[in-house]
Write a structure and sequence with these properties.
The chain is mainly beta. Helices cover 9% and strands 30% of the residues. The N terminus is likely disordered.
Length: 552
Amino acid sequence: MPDEDAIVDVFAGSLSKSSDVSECERSIFFRHFVCGLSIQQFICKPIRGRIHHDENDDMCAGRCLGVCCEFQRAGGGQVGGCHRQYIAGQRIGRGAFSDRAVLHHAKWQRAPLSLINMDEFNGKAVKLRFRSARNADTLYDFQVFLAPGDMWTANVSQNGAGLSFLTTADASCTKPAKSVINATPFQTERLDPSITAAERAGETREGYIEIVTMADIPPSASGLFPLIDLNDGVARCSNLTSNTAWTALDVNKAGLSDYATLGMQPPSSGLTANWTIINVPKALSWSGSALALEAQRDGKAARGNLAYFPQIMTTASAAQNYSADPLYAGANPPLAARMSDFPDISTPYVAGVGTANQQAKALKELLAVTSVSNEFWTDKGIAAETDWLFSMPTKRYAMAVNYKAPAASKLVLNTEVDPDALTMDNFLNSMDGYCVTDLALNAYDRESRAYSVIQVIAAQSNKPMHVCSAVSLLNMSEFIEKLVPLTLLASPPVLANGWMKLHANGANGANGAQGKGRPIIGHAFVRAFNPNVAPGTAGNFSVTWPHRLLKN
């Protein structure tokens, strides 16, 4: 949490801070997204639709420098420009807590989820979005409102039609209401219409989750706080006679002051999320925590932009201002965005990031690694199996698939997000789940013998290794059959257990892509069986290891 004396209060569309800068008038950093805490000062003039830099306008004794921008928000009116002091996060970084997170599941059946607000002072308005594994298409999204110190839990399972559905008995407020969430399975309308209904249902059972803190909700006797706060374990989640803030959220507002009136402030850090995958018949489970991303300044947690959007189906205009998704771009975008499609992790969140493309590119560069390493067990004596999970949560903002387009033009690129690495020389189309192919590897057994690839993974590729889709699994039992020792041995041992390093430094890239790495995260999942346990004793066990990710 930032220092208390740096907390910014919002009153009637203006911002105030400590008395030492009271002569500076404070106002809005973004048209709808307001930037949060850090020690940087701004002096801005209202210029609609573009970034404005004015470093010579020194109206606060040399303390105010300028970066300001207004976005035309769908359905919104004009808001006064930025002037004077505003404290803002400068960059997105990795942290123990987050204001944004990514849960990188592969399969989420029998998957309990928990979302924890470790901020003991502020409530949080949080967006969750489930995306498909193949092309990160939106499957399901909703909002959770956490009281200070609150925790929200849910479970994802499969219904009789094969669709994923989420159920929760939690008392925390949600939009839509808990009863609607519990009754609504994941949606297939944005998946490939050319595949069967059963295949589309299957795609709802794999993917990853984006989590974004849209706003803080500080303690107050009015506005949202008394409606979402827990009183003896129960939240109201509805209007009071004299307080209609809950339903007021369902209408898009003209500007920041309207959301301030409802009791919202720019989001701070403090959010965490955990996941568990349970195999009930085999008494196995794997668990981990979400990748934490937070607005930072000088390496410390700072506030991000207020990024609340109503959870409504109304079509949103100028969607490219709020998301880098290539299918939202252009005058006639391939996919019509709804208000509920925002925010996502490409929505502008920190100072100096004026567009969604810039935000997505910054995240891509933050997550890019040149190597991914981990251990594997495939020892047949203990029936061991290892799956490596690879997740690329920024891939959707660099490339998406327009299922309605002819085959030759299905792939839609956003070269502003990934201008160097996105060359078709480095990508392979596998059932429209495009694969990164400019990868190499080294593998070692437990006695440090080195192994190499002798054949390709897929017949249609001449590359030794590739990672497909937004989320994919590599079964190590199958993969190590393609590896042989680099040293010639009369009786080479069978590779069963060891470790492997995947090189993702863009070695075959063009236009300067070499050495920049790929934005890959993930885990290794192990299961095994102890055949020597006593009768009646469970012998199955499971292990989860996060990948070791190196930038250089």
